[in-house]
Specification:
CATH superfamily of the largest domain: Bira Bifunctional Protein, Domain 2
Shape: globular
Protein name: Glycine--tRNA ligase
EC number: 6.1.1.14
CATH topology of the largest domain: BirA Bifunctional Protein, domain 2
Distance between the termini: 38 Å
Helix content: 40-55%
Subunit structure: Homodimer.
Catalytic activity: tRNA(Gly) + glycine + ATP = glycyl-tRNA(Gly) + AMP + diphosphate
Structural class: alpha+beta
Function: Catalyzes the attachment of glycine to tRNA(Gly).
CATH class of the largest domain: Alpha Beta
Largest sheet: 7 strands, mixed
Number of helices: 18
Radius of gyration: 26 Å
Length: about 525
């Protein structure tokens, strides 16, 4: 099945089973805004809990805060967002659609990479075990031709982005025959910049109101609270401040479901270090964050680092952790060495001294910062995309199953009476009441047991417990495992430990802490 079709099915599945709904749907929706349903909010909260505990609970020198969405407008001047928070946009005159120029070019580079990989794959099949991939990449004429073209484009693009040359970006699009996906034409407008911040007025009257912004990132709330946290928490460098919160960007090219939205949630941690040690910590946090992702078991091959071609105005090193979505490798998390730009600028614009006195060095300085920033919604989408599976069973039937990591699953266990009589529902309720203090449980007695299993597969429930007549005799139940569909007879008293071992976040956190 084509990846595009898989993605459409995933989006449909998210709505059908209560994970994600289009916002304001009864009023025909609001573009690029979504609501999380009863299953989605549980999965989302579990993702946030996994991140928070891995940051705050596992590190003695990282603490959390929750800063306000509204902030003094000068903060965004100091951070550079007022002047530099722009996307290069281009319109196609025939389709009347608007695109990010940098994304169009990056997609073109990705297609060239795909051509190279296809040549390698074909050769690997042709030559079998004797295939020397390294030699093939270095000598094959077609591979070298594709690579030369790709490298030339890459060099032009990197220079144009770093120079802020909008005319060159448009010329690249024309020179490489990049067409509008809708109209198929190259009838492009000029490239222009567009600021992404939402603004509003704060105050009771027009004369007394002040222009404020909905924050486009959560990081600045951490920076302006640096001294508050450092002093009240008696924090010593190196230390970090973590935060989970909403951010807002007026994305003109919002697309791909919840991947790019106008209202989204971030999990960010700013790690403050001595000047000169930032690149060492940058490498350390790259390793730590990739380990966090891989601990979920979604497939190590689905992750890769992508270094930035154009560094942000505040950074001296930056990379993305990309995940293989149904629409290609896309950024899920960014790791940046932000230097001392933010704290230095807030000191300058506020007129307040924002420095750290290092008792070991006996001097004060403005700390450097390593940032890890992950989008909750993108993380949600990557987990759902990796978990979604359609499979044909040995008996010829098919099922849709979400192979979610058990600690993240919205519902941990479903308890089902085999029939709705003979005291089985009452026994099932009794079991639910004993488990619900530790696990999110669901009771289900409608339809055949097979249909009930399918419903739980579709929402990713790792365990189904069936109560039958034998249960009343010997105090045992049938536990059915989601991924293998194997069934096991266990004593009711064993359920707590059996389920707990698999669904506890502890199992994931131990992998991260190794």
């Amino acid at each position: 099945m084509a990846q595009e079709d898989v993605f459409k099915k995933l989006v449909s599945h998210c709505k059908e089973y209560g994970f994600v709904f289009p916002s304001s749907e009864i009023y025909d929706g609001l573009a690029a805004v979504y609501d999380y349903g009863q299953m989605g909010v549980e999965l989302k909260n579990n993702i946030k809990k996994y991140w928070w505990d891995s940051m705050v609970m596992l590190h003695e020198n990282i603490v959390g805060i929750d800063s306000a969405i509204f902030m003094h407008p000068t903060i965004w001047k100091a951070s550079g967002h007022v002047d530099a928070f722009n996307d290069p946009l281009i319109d196609n005159k025939d389709s009347k659609k608007r695109y990010r120029a940098d994304v169009l070019i990056e997609d073109c580079i990705a297609k060239m990479d795909e051509k190279i990989e296809k040549e390698v794959e074909k050769a690997a099949k042709r030559f079998g075990d004797s295939f020397d991939e390294k030699l093939f990449r270095e000598t094959n004429p077609r591979v070298l031709e594709h690579k030369a073209k790709r490298d030339e484009l890459h060099a032009r693009y990197a220079k144009a982005m770093n120079d802020g040359d909008l005319n060159e970006l448009r010329q690249i699009i024309l020179d490489y025959d990049i067409v509008c996906p809708i109209s198929g034409t190259k009838n492009w407008t000029e490239v222009r910049q567009f600021n992404l911040m939402f603004s509003t007025e704060m105050g009771s009257t027009a004369d007394g109101s002040m222009k404020v912004y909905l924050r486009p990132e959560t990081a600045q709330g951490i920076f302006v609270n640096f001294l508050n946290v450092q002093k009240t928490g008696r924090m010593r460098i190196p230390f970090g401040i973590a935060q989970i919160g909403k951010a807002f960007r007026n994305e003109i090219v919002a697309r791909q479901f919840i991947f790019r939205m106008r209202e989204f949630e971030q999990m960010e941690m700013q790690f403050f270090v001595r000047p000169g040690e930032e690149l060492k910590w940058f490498e350390k946090w790259k390793e730590t964050r990739l380990k966090w992702h891989k601990a979920l078991g979604l497939g190590d091959q689905k992750y890769r680092f992508h270094d930035h071609e154009k560094l942000a105005h505040y950074a001296n090193a930056a990379t993305d952790i990309e995940f293989e979505m149904p629409f290609g490798f896309k950024e899920v998390e960014g790791i940046h060495s932000r230097t001392n730009f933010d704290l230095g600028n807030h000191e300058k614009f506020s007129g307040k001294k924002i420095q750290y006195f290092d008792p070991e060095l006996g001097e004060s300085y403005t700390p450097y910062v390593i940032e890890t920033s992950i989008g909750v919604d993108r993380m949600f989408l990557s987990v759902m995309a990796a978990a979604y599976c359609e499979e044909t069973l040995d008996n010829g039937e098919s099922r849709v199953v979400l192979r979610l990591p058990a600690p993240l699953a919205p519902v941990k266990v479903a308890v089902m009476p085999l029939v709705r009589k003979d005291g089985l529902p009452e026994k099932a309720r009794e079991i639910i009441n004993s488990l619900r203090f530790d696990f999110n449980c669901q009771y289900d007695e409608k339809d055949s047991i097979g249909k009930r299993y399918r419903r739980q597969d579709a929402i990713g429930t790792p365990f189904c417990v069936t109560v039958d007549h034998q249960t009343l005799e010997d105090h045992t139940v049938t536990v059915r495992f989601r991924d293998t569909m194997e069934q096991q007879r266990v004593d009711i008293d064993q359920l707590q430990s059996l389920i707990g071992e698999q669904v506890s976040l502890k199992s994931l956190l131990k992998k991260v802490a190794e």
